[in-house]
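Pilot study result, target chain (333 residues):
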Amino acid sequence: MATATAVADLKKQFNTFLRENKCPTGEIVKKKYYFPVNRLKTIYMSMLSATDVQWSQLQVMLTDHVENLDFCYYSWECFASIALQLDVKTMNVYIFTNLLGLTKIPNEKKEDDKLLFHSLTGPISILGLQGIFILVKDYNLECPNIYGKLYNFFTTDMFNYRYKTRLFYLADIFLRSTHLPELLVAAFIKRMARLSLIAPPTDIKIMVAFIGNLLIRHPPLKVLIQNDSVVGSDPYIFDEKDPLKSNALNSSLWELVSLKQHILPKVSKSVNFIFKKLPQVEWDVSELLNDSYENMIDEEFKTEFQKVSLTYEKPTSYAVPLSNHFDDLWTLD
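Predicted structure:
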């Protein structure tokens, strides 16, 4: 019942918007051109705040209007304003990203509005990465410093994001090319290696596999494993925003060597590749994205361990060892 009421309220707001757009009031009609953009923004805010409305219901409501260039133009003005005040705790980010995908972008707004989400921070910017990748790949959109932006997503705060698995997935897509500068790839490797020291176990396995894949794609970067030089401190600059200035190539993967001593066997085994020859086939990172503590515990319970003997002397009678040390040290009354 609540869903029907919410949908009816949204339809009522939308019909009011359409009437005002078609027949403006006397004061508004004096303007050469008028579009009720404020009312449209209110409708979008109501859509994002509604907790009991399905995206399919909203899609039906908007389908007939997203072909209208004026509607799309002013919708993107609303999106730009909403994105700056988007609260992922109270607003439905899933519906917002679907709205972005449904609404066409007029040519004159492509550069400004698409790159707006590139300049934001936090979860909404992570969700916008995939759209930026499609625009760069399929439509040759120039996106300045896109790898620098991606690099700065990998911070200690990322482990608190709901969409961190999406970040790993998209980073794998962006870094799949074998023609990227080795200095850039080395910076990503070192950033993930350093973060793995404080990451949850499930994320450590993802980042270690990611590092292994990058080393397979860029064989010259094996120097990070084989770097035996002795230095007073790690030359890698973790706080550097520009990955090309992070001095990553002069460092080594000592972090992965440290993870060999991790208390969890699954994590400890995941870094074994640095002590062996790298495989020819990459690890499937997508299989690790849905990993959880429950899965790790279940795997540990299913592991068969070799039975170890608890005594090295075969007793001659019930619960009595072969030697007489017990009788020498104890007297039973």
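One observation from the pilot: The two ends are 79 Å apart (CA to CA). A full batch analysis is planned for the follow-on phase.
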